[in-house]
């Protein structure tokens, strides 16, 4: 029996995931003060009142989810089939399903509302950690899936996120150029006369950042190996890129950091998990 | 006598001379009228010219590009033009220009674009033209070049025509009416989001055909100054508007509308903080001492009424303030807005005013009136609209015209003290 129920680090990993998802909920909720991609899709079909009401409802549920998930986790631990039937566990599962569904839908709508934009097409891959994290936690709660299966789910989600972002970097996504140039402005001084040079530097750097993302994605997927350094590296890079939204554009963009908590959070949890476990995973 | 006056007063009260929207003055409010006009749009058939447009870029006092589409490739594509009417007969026009750039629209079924770049035009001069492709020709139309002196003139601004096709047709008919009744109305600057999917030729084709509705009954065409929006990705934008900004830049350029008026068009859909910012700084630095009225236009707002600020706020707003831009036109939010003058993220009478947000057909949203920069004396509203700006030596008149012709907002700008 190799389920999470029996794994010694069950509680720590589950709690880590729970807090990452909770913070992600706050980020998504705060970002809904402005129209979502879903709103843009609904607007021509149903009008502003309906689209706005949908956004407001989603924001309310996300705020509630962010607040409730840590408490629901406390109430439903440790999981057992008996507790799964209790209302608290069901409520927990429903919220996790909702968060996973919204994170996935958001990535798809982001792509669909900018269907002509090749960078937006990477969103369902780049956002993978955001919707896989609640799914894994849900599997914890229901006691389904072997430990290794869920660990690999996390690994694949992290790799997918790095591949998605790596592709956008390799293709020189304009938004990424602005993030780096804006961050350089913050730390090196803002001078529009130097902006062109900084862009040139960034355009040289971005393909290498993309290649590095691909390499990290490949390394995290090596079977029979748990490369702790790689997980830690991905965690740091995930947090650095999330924080770059604020270093480039100011504190008003704080929801962007929370939305991207899983980018660094999931590799960090894997690193913490692997730090105290065998370097070689047990066989399936 | 007194009873008669009372009777007249009663009649005036029952049948007011002004008041309710008069569909006689705004016939596009009637569905039948719009359908009738839309049915009259030239069809893309064979080599027959259709989807005509005039494009302005850097120097509209001496240059203009006349563009059109044909269903088939065709062999001969010519613009016949003259300083006087040719009576609709291309043979009687004094000048001719063979198209400079032709090609098949990306992702199309074989429809082609044609661009004839007219140069060495005279300023403030009306040019009459007829488009000819393989012996088939368009009706005669005309446009007026930008002035090389300080005479007053007007320009329309607006954005977001990607959905709401019926309302888009109505707004186009409103623009045609404004064009007809305002002799000094010279051009139309579109703030982007022409269509929902910029790589979809079918959507562009519909937009291009409906654009014909902006042509006034007299044949007066409003040259378009194009801006790229977030829904306008892909090669079709450049194929339709002849790569505004040139191949060396990514659709950002400045237009010298007159010796005293300049419009800087920026592209929010590419890198904002790098080379474009350096170009913007240099352009504003050179233009500011030369012109009285300095304007900028781009798609995603720096000071939005609905969404959150785009990269323009971080990278371009400091330059607008450093070089005292007079007015900035934005789109994307689907509302009507005018900010208070802004400098250093505060209300400041010496600051920059931001207007627009797009209403050329798209369904309108509810603006967030609580944002500090939109509170009175700023304004927000909703409704399909186009902005009309008139430039004179003494003032710049800004007004927002709604679909029924009523004015939703207006403001007079005075020249900045040098």
Describe the structure.
The complex is a heterodimer of chains A (284) and B (418). Chain A has one domain (10-275). Chain A is built from 13 helices and no strands. Chain A has helices at 10-31, 37-46, 48-76, 81-84, 87-112, 123-126, 128-142, 147-170, 174-188, 195-220, 228-249, 254-259, 261-275. In chain A, helix 11 runs antiparallel to helix 13. Chain A is globular and about 65 Å long. With 418 residues, chain B is of the alpha+beta class. Chain B folds into 2 domains: 50-144, Sandwich (Immunoglobulin-like); 153-413, 4-Layer Sandwich (Purple Acid Phosphatase, chain A, domain 2), CATH 3.60.21. Chain B contains 8 helices and 24 strands. A 7-stranded mixed β-sheet of chain B has the order 13-14-15-16-20-17-21, covered by helices on one side. Chain B has a 6-stranded mixed β-sheet with strand order 12-11-10-22-23-24, covered by helices on one side. Chain B is globular. Chain A binds chain B through residues 34-35, 43-44, 47-49, 51-52, 114-117, 174-175, 177-178, 181-182, 185, 190, 192-196, 198-200, 202, 248-250, 252, and chain B through 163-164, 197-200, 230-231, 233-234, 269-275, 277-281, 304, 306-309, 311, 313-315, 318-319, 334, 362-366, 382.
């Amino acid at each position: 029996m190799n389920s999470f129920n029996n794994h010694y680090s069950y509680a720590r990993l589950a709690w880590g995931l729970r807090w990452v998802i909770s913070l992600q909920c706050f980020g998504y909720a705060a970002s809904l003060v402005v129209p979502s991609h879903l709103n843009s899709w609904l607007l021509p079909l149903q009008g502003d009142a309906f689209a706005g009401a949908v956004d407001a409802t989603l924001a309310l549920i996300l705020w509630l989810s962010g607040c409730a998930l840590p408490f629901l986790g406390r109430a439903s631990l440790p999981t057992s089939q008996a507790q799964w039937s209790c209302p608290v566990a069901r409520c927990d599962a429903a919220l996790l399903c909702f968060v996973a569904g919204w994170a996935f839908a958001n990535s798809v709508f982001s792509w669909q509302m900018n269907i002509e934009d090749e960078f937006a097409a990477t969103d369902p891959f780049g956002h993978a950690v955001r919707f896989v994290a609640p799914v894994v936690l849900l599997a914890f709660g229901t006691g389904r899936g072997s430990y290794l299966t869920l660990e690999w789910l996390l690994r694949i989600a992290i790799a997918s996120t790095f591949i998605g972002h790596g592709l956008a970097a390799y293709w020189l996504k304009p938004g990424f150029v602005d993030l780096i140039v804006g961050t350089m402005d913050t730390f090196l001084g803002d001078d529009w006369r130097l902006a062109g040079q900084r862009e040139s530097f960034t355009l040289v750097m971005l393909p290498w950042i993309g290649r590095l993302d691909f390499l990290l994605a490949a390394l995290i997927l090596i079977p029979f190996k748990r490369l702790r350094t790689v997980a830690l590296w991905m965690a740091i890079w995930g947090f650095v890129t999330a924080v770059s939204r604020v270093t480039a554009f100011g504190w008003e963009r704080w929801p962007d950091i929370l939305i991207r908590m899983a980018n660094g959070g999931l590799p960090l949890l894997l690193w913490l998990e692997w730090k105290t476990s065998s370097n070689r995973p047990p066989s399936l | 006598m007194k009873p008669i006056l009372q009777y007249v007063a009663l009649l005036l009260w029952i049948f007011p001379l002004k008041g309710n929207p008069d569909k006689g003055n705004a016939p596009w409010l009637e569905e039948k009228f719009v359908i009738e006009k839309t049915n009259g749009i030239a069809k893309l058939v064979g080599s027959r010219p259709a989807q005509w447009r005039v494009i302005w870029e850097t120097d509209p006092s001496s240059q203009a590009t006349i563009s059109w589409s044909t269903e088939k490739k065709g062999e001969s594509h010519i613009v016949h033009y003259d300083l006087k009417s040719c009576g609709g007969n291309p043979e009687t026009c004094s000048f001719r220009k063979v198209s400079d750039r032709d090609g098949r629209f990306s992702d199309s079924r074989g429809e082609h674009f044609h661009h004839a770049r007219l140069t060495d035009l005279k300023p403030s001069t009306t040019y009459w033209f007829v488009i000819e492709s393989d012996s088939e020709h368009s009706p005669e139309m005309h446009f007026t070049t930008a002035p090389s002196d300080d005479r007053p003139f007007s320009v329309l601004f607006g954005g977001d025509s990607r959905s709401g096709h019926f309302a888009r047709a109505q707004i186009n008919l409103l623009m045609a009416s404004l064009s007809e009744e305002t002799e000094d109305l010279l051009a139309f600057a579109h703030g982007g989001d022409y269509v929902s999917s910029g790589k979809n030729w079918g959507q562009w084709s519909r937009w291009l055909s409906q654009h014909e509705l902006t042509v006034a009954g007299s044949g007066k065409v409003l040259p378009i100054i194009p801006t790229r929006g977030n829904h306008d990705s892909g090669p079709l934008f450049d194929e339709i508007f002849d790569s505004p900004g040139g191949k060396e830049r990514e659709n950002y350029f400045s237009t010298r509308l007159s010796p005293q008026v300049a419009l800087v068009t920026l592209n929010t859909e590419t890198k904002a903080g790098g080379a474009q910012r350096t170009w913007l700084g240099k352009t504003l630095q050179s233009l500011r001492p030369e012109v009285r009225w300095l304007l900028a236009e781009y798609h995603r707002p720096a000071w939005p009424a609905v969404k959150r600020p785009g990269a323009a706020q971080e990278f371009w707003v400091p330059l607008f303030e450093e070089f005292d831009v007079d007015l900035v036109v934005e789109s994307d939010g689907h509302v009507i807005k005018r900010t208070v003058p802004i400098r250093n993220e505060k209300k400041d009478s010496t600051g920059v005013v931001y207007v627009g947000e797009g209403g050329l057909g798209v369904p309108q949203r509810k603006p967030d009136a609580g944002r500090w920069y939109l509170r009175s004396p700023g304004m927000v509203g909703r409704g399909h609209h186009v902005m009309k700006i008139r430039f004179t030596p003494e003032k710049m008149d800004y007004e927002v015209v709604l679909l029924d012709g009523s004015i939703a907002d207006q403001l007079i700008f005075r020249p900045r003290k040098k």
